[in-house]
Design goal:
alpha/beta; four-stranded mixed sheet; 1 helix; 8 strands
Length: 150
């Protein structure tokens, strides 16, 4: 028989697993984003969440718009994608994606709500591998398991 303490531990683990099981990606549907995990919510409380998102070149970010109309207006820099929406044609109850091909930081804001700001950080594809470990010391032929420690 399991003791009361272990029953509480198992109950907590089971509850955590049930919650974790609900957090997966869902298929794309109107207004819910692209399901690629690179989603930014444009919320009714006038924030982009997350406010900074980091991706690799040639990946997309999907902005998900709720009931309040917003835009995504990028600062003018090389490689920036097209803006999303306009003051006279904001986005609400929909989603829109943009693909970023060049490494860099792309700042944006909502033209309707200028306090809403965010950034897409596109990191470089080049990853420097870690250096190899140093070679092991040569074995001591007088000791069958390697070197003797003095």
């Amino acid at each position: 028989m399991i003791g009361t303490r272990w029953q509480r531990v198992l109950t907590a683990l089971a509850a955590g697993g049930a919650v974790a099981g609900c957090s997966g990606s869902s298929p794309t549907s109107p207004g819910t984003g692209g399901g690629n995990g690179n989603n930014v919510q444009a919320s009714a409380n006038l924030t982009f969440s997350p406010s900074v998102i980091t991706i690799q070149p040639n990946q997309s970010v999907t902005w998900v718009f709720g009931t309040v109309g917003h835009t995504v207006t990028f600062d003018a820099v090389a490689g920036v994608p097209d803006n999303i929406g306009a003051v006279n044609a904001p986005n609400a109850n929909t989603s829109a994606s943009r693909t970023f091909t060049t490494a860099g930081t792309y700042n944006y804001h909502c033209s309707i709500h200028p306090e809403m700001t965010g950034s897409v950080v596109v990191t470089s594809n080049s990853v420097t591998p870690p250096p190899p470990p140093p070679p092991p010391p040569p074995p001591d032929s007088n000791y069958p398991y390697g070197r003797r420690v003095p």
